[in-house]
Amino acid sequence: MYKIARDKLPALFQLLASEQELILPINSGNQVNFGLWSEEAEVSLDALNSVKSPKDAFFPQGEDLYTVKKDGKKLSIEPGSLKEQDFVIFGMRACDYRGVEVLDKVFLSDPVDNYYKARREHGTIITMACSEPEETCFCKVFDIDCTTPGGDIQTWLDKDALYWQPVSEKGVALTAKISELFTDGDEEKVEAMKKATQEIVEKLPYADLSLKGWGAGMTDEKFDSPVWENLADSCLACGTCTFICPTCQCYDIKDYNTGSNVHRYRCWDSCMYSDFTMMAHGNNRTTQMQRFRQRFMHKLVYFPTNNEGMYSCVGCGRCVGKCPSSLNIVKVIKKFEEKGE
């Protein structure tokens, strides 16, 4: 384990960014989101959660897939470029790292998404342990340890220093390149920090949230429950929950005619929107209840059924804090428990 004094972090960022892109939490307009580092950027490592998850470092909100060019009567297709430059994403929390592992199950399974694969191959993830979890956090429910966040390199931050521990081969290689900045770390101090955080986690409001009745193979038990109708009544279909979620992977593919070329691009979409399942014959989810049910059944039943029990919720708490109607996943789980279903 290594450490670097907190006042030397700008030098660390500069060295990391000298050879590759560096993405980390940036405060802009009183909102923290992951963005490219610059010397003028206001880095916010102490912010627990960014507004959006950092998943778009690997699964961008929009990207070109290919361009069709016309020259007289001749057409040519120019594929979108795959990621070729190495980059580092710094400060990802344990919940968001689990979110990337969920996306791996989707985009790296056959057939592999080459755009996503290229970004994963070129990206190095430096995670940061939590020290002051918020009341909206419930990652523990999904067996995520926010004090040991994983990734290629995992770090811990206190008022004096950043503690640094390589985990993967990528992490070891990157650490070797910047070893001049580090001194030996204090493992006992890190263990004390972890213990203090774990004590906070145990006292959080949703620490004892039960997943009994959810998980793999529970489709029949949950799908036709009348609870869904009652819960969905207040849903605004705004899609906020899907766009801030670390694991939502719904997307649309569209063509845009520039007048001379046609761009085919991919962009995030939401299962909460009425036109998401619109097909030539019509829409197979005609009510908001059906769309609402789809989102939470996917998180808590369908995904674990198809992925060795892995849930596609990570307990980051973003939907708890941001849903304008308070229709978050915690409320869904509690309502079913209340009804004994």
Quick recap:
Helices cover 31% and strands 23% of the residues. By secondary structure, it is α+β, with helices and mostly antiparallel strands.
Protein model, in words:
With 341 residues, this protein is of the alpha+beta class. The chain has helices spanning 9-17, 94-107, 114-122, 169-177, 187-202, 219-223, 227-232, 240-244, 288-306, 318-322, 329-338; strands at 2-5, 21-28, 31-36, 62-71, 74-79, 87-92, 123-128, 153-157, 161-166, 183-184, 251-257, 261-268, 278-279, 282-283. The strands form 3 sheets. Strands 3-2-6-7-8-9-1-10 form an 8-stranded mixed sheet. A hairpin with a 3-residue loop joins strand 11 (251-257) and strand 12 (261-268).
Largest sheet: 8 strands, mixed
Distance between the termini: 47 Å
Strand line-up in the sheet with most strands: 3-2-6-7-8-9-1-10
Q: How is the quaternary structure best described?
A: single chain
Query: What is the element string, with H for helices and E for strands?
Result: EHEEEEEHHEEEHEHHHHEEEEHHH
Sheet-strand content, in percent, reads 15-25%
Strand segment tally: 14
Mean pLDDT: 94
Query: What structural category do the secondary elements indicate?
Result: alpha+beta
List low-pLDDT spans.
Answer: none
Give helix % range: 25-40%
Characteristic terms for this protein:
eight-stranded mixed sheet; 341 residues; 23% strand; four-stranded antiparallel sheet; 11 helices; 14 strands; globular; alpha+beta
